[in-house]
Recover the amino acids of this structure.
């Protein structure tokens, strides 16, 4: 056993050394980053692939506490290890590995040397811009030793209409002194996976391989606003509410929610056209809602605007209701959901999903 362990460590050392002295026959950069799909094309862990020479490839999976490395020999059209994968190069930009059930797709990732990074005690502000969301969102991230506090402020027409806070456990992982990754820890495996890209000394630039989005965090002071606590267990892939056999419902049913919301908003003059206010949100396992998106449209389904008071009132009323979360075989799940508020003659007249 000790002899086998020594041989493995020796191979790993040789491959590591080769990464500094060899290039692939395809003249590709030595690091590709991608995501893994199973036969149902559900996202699982992102992985890193690094070419160590013309006939060797290294696949590294991101874990909560570190990076697990597997080494394979490359032989023209297959990777020879525990499993065989056909591979295909998409020019210099991508690499695909497939077998009968699995699919790895990797995008080009430049190799660069990065200095050590320490985030504890630092705070950054991110402007989350989404052209499909009528809310403007500003996230303030405050890093502590082993946790990250994310304060999320929602603005409509430049006024604050809601604030919430989430807490994440995180880790910073180093790969070959070329790439550093920010990992949001899950119970068994990472939930979200960011690559830390060099930026100005006081700022931070993150690329999320789960979603393909890049965000720039400007160095800021620590956020101290009081906000509603919200948590989501499933951060990597959220199913839509209608994909569950036991669909989520308000505690007292949709009719009760509709009746009370229409009643509670009856004194509010909805300043805007006849149309619809669509509120999308995440429904968590505790039956609470958060992570809001807003879409405003007239009755012809064209973009519309309503007053800040109208939008703020509807969001504040919607948050009051507890839900029965989505379930599969008595296990509860987080999911994406939405409510549609119908506006006519400056009044809320109906709520439906």
């Amino acid at each position: 056993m000790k002899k086998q362990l020594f041989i493995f460590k020796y191979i790993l050392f040789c491959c590591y050394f080769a990464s500094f002295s060899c290039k692939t026959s395809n003249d590709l950069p030595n690091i590709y980053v991608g995501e893994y799909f199973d036969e149902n094309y559900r996202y699982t862990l992102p992985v890193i692939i690094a070419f160590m020479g013309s006939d060797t490839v290294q696949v590294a999976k991101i874990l909560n506490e570190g990076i697990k490395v597997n080494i394979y020999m490359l032989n023209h059209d297959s990777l020879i290890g525990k499993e065989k994968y056909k591979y295909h190069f998409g020019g210099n930009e991508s690499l695909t590995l497939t077998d009968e059930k699995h699919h790895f797709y990797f995008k080009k990732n430049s190799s660069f040397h990065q200095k050590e990074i320490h985030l504890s005690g630092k705070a950054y502000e991110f402007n989350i811009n989404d052209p499909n969301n009528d809310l403007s969102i500003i996230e303030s991230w405050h890093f502590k030793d082993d946790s990250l506090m994310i304060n999320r402020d929602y603005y409509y027409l430049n006024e604050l209409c809601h604030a919430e806070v989430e807490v994440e456990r995180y880790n910073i992982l180093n790969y070959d002194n070329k790439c550093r990754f920010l990992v949001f820890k899950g119970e068994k495996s990472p939930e979200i996976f960011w690559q830390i890209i060099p930026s100005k000394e006081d700022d931070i630039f993150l690329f999320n391989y789960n979603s393909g989005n890049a965000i720039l965090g400007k160095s800021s002071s620590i956020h101290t606003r009081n906000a509603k606590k919200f948590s989501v267990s499933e951060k990597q892939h959220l199913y839509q509410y209608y994909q569950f056999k036991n669909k989520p419902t308000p505690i007292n049913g949709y009719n009760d929610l509709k009746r009370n919301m229409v009643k509670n908003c009856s004194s509010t003059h909805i300043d805007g056209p006849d149309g619809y206010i669509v509120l999308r949100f995440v429904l968590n396992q505790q039956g609470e809602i958060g992570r809001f998106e807003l879409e405003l449209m007239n009755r012809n389904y064209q973009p519309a605007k309503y007053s800040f008071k109208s939008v703020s009132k509807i969001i504040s009323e919607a948050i009051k209701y507890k839900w029965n979360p989505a379930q599969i075989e008595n296990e509860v799940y987080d999911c994406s959901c939405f409510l549609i508020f119908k506006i006519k003659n400056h009044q809320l007249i109906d709520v439906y999903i």
